[in-house]
Amino acid sequence: MAVIIGVARETAQGERRVALTPETAKKLVAAGATVRVQRGLGDLAHFPDQAYADAGVQLADGDVLADADVVLCVQPPPADAIARLKPGAVLVGALQPQADEARADAIRGNGIVAFPLERLPRTTRAQAMDILSSQAGIAGYKAVLIAAQLAPRYFPMLTTAAGTIRPSKVLIVGAGVAGLQAVATARRLGAQVECFDVRPETREQIESLGGKFLDLGVSAAGEGGYARQLTDEERALQQQRLADHLKGIDVIVCTAAVPGRPAPKIVSAAMVAGMKPGSVIVDLAAETGGNCELTQPGETVASGNDVVVAGPLNLASQGALHASEMYARNLYNFVSLLLRDGALAFDWDDELLAKTVWPERAAAA
User: Fold this and answer.
1) Which of 43, 236, 314, 335 is deepest in the core (most CB within 10 A)?
2) CA 257 to chain centre
3) Which CDD domains did the record assign (predicted)?
4) Which domains does the chain have, with CATH numbers?
């Protein structure tokens, strides 16, 4: 019997993305799966029901998850929804089970085989399944557009009849996927762009995009392409030098994150107090506490010296169409590892499955 893949409408507030597009649905049907989705699934991401129907998807008004062998999602389903899934069903998406005890208990209690793709190993083979990278890219792009909108100045240099307008000085904090996309976007808008990262190996990537690497003399190169946490002495030196530099910066876009931990505080309230009035900070790390001490998640506020600090949430959802296309391809590439002739087959010797599955299995050790 063919595996049944179910996808329901997202229920999280403000979520516009979908885990399945007509493109990936067609591929799953071709692989022998039966695909069922809730009507209106893709409305907010601009994928009409008819496009899904044309791809061979079964559309339903009610529950499409009760008898599904595989459930795809963007945001993790509520605990009660997980409890209603078929025992032993496969759940794939950005699940963060350890962030919610009720969700974790529902997964364990119902014997769900969960694949939180944020746990995916950072390997070359896994790149096509990497939801963190695909969604971070569009978030970095949107963050710069928000900064340009909030800034009371042009980004590019302009020569006008009224004189020359100097380009904005933009600093990107963090040279991960979001940060590098922010560098590229700010450069396209004509700004003078610098990027600060404690990993010296990012210099070449930053410079290849037209940015300047800001070297503060502090290195925190870590494992797996991520930064390690700084020592107290390193952090003090970094903050002293960064504070002096920020006095001449017009726009900061913060993107620094350490997986599984609160975002590192890099821009202090004292640094903000030293910036020019009218400067702008857009903090992509707001969802995990923010890189700026003054960030208020989901809010845009002004400091005492008229520096605007924005803490947008779920920026990838603002680019729902392209974000969904990339996310759905990530999920399709991962689910393809689970399918053999239209049926489920788990190869626990595959490190991508073994290291991603939650709860961890003895067979994955």
Assistant:
1) 335
2) 11
3) Rubrum_tdh
4) 4-119+320-364 (3.40.50.720), 137-313 (3.40.50.720)
Quick count: other Cβ atoms within 10 Å of Cβ 13? Answer: 8
Global confidence as pTM: 0.90
- Just list the catalytic residues: 122, 127, 130, 133, 226
Peptide bond into 277 cis (omega under 30): no
Q: Which candidate, 213, 216, 176, 180, places its Cα nearest to that of 195?
A: 213
Using CA atoms in the order 37, 41, 45, 47, what is the torsion angle rounded to 10 degrees?
Answer: 60
Q: What is the pLDDT of residue 364?
A: 39
On whether the CB atoms of residues 239 and 268 are closer than 8 A, the answer is yes
Q: What is the pLDDT of residue 259?
A: 72
d(CA 15, CA 131): 16
Show the tokens assigned to 86.
């078929």
- pLDDT average per 10 residues of sequence, the chain (365 residues): 93 95 97 96 98 97 94 96 95 93 94 96 95 96 97 95 95 96 98 92 94 84 62 83 95 88 91 96 95 96 95 96 98 96 91 95 54
Residues sharing a CB contact under 8 Å with residue 262, sequence separation 6 or more, in sequence order:
288, 289
Helices (H), 151-223: 177-188, 203-208
Q: Distance between CA 348 and CA 346 in Å, rounded?
A: 6
Give the CA dihedral 267, 270, 271, 276, nearest 10 degrees: 130
d(CA 120, CA 283): 25
Element (H, E) at 34: strand 34-38
Q: How far is CA 244 from its chain centroid?
A: 31
Q: What size, in residues, is the chain? A: 365
Q: Which residue has the tokens 């969904």?
A: 324
Q: Measured between alpha carbons, how far is 141 from 179 in angstroms, rounded to an integer?
A: 9
